[in-house]
Amino acid sequence: QVQLVESGGGLVQTGGSLRLSCAASGSTFSSYTMGWFRQAPGKEREFVAAINRSGVNTYYADSVKGRFTISRDNAKNTVYLQMDSLKPEDTAVYYCAATESLLRIRVLSAYTYWGPGTQVTVSS
Description:
The chain is an all-beta fold and about 120 residues long. It contains no helices and eleven strands. Strands 2, 4, 5, 6, 9, 10 and 11 form a seven-stranded mixed sheet that branches. The chain has a four-stranded antiparallel sheet with strand order 1-3-8-7, with no helix packed on it. A hairpin with a 6-residue loop joins strand 5 and strand 6 (about 60). The radius of gyration is 13 Å and the shape is globular.
């Protein structure tokens, strides 16, 4: 089992940047593919980005490609989401998630463990 806690959310203006962190505990962090998802008010939770166990391979939703960067530090049991050129439509609660699966990593149901989320608000 792994416990996840996100941090780094907040209020930022359009065009600004934020860096989210997700600290993991309780199990071997490097055993998990890690993902970031987000959920805006009234909308379903959606895939944002994922990173494989070693950190070599990364995957992004088209809506954030070129603006967001996912990375991980297995020595610190932490995964990051660097968000640049933020837009009002990026406003959402951002969730960190972990899966032992190597497949379907863009799919919400593939993830077993979830953090409580952190709010990101981008003002226009």
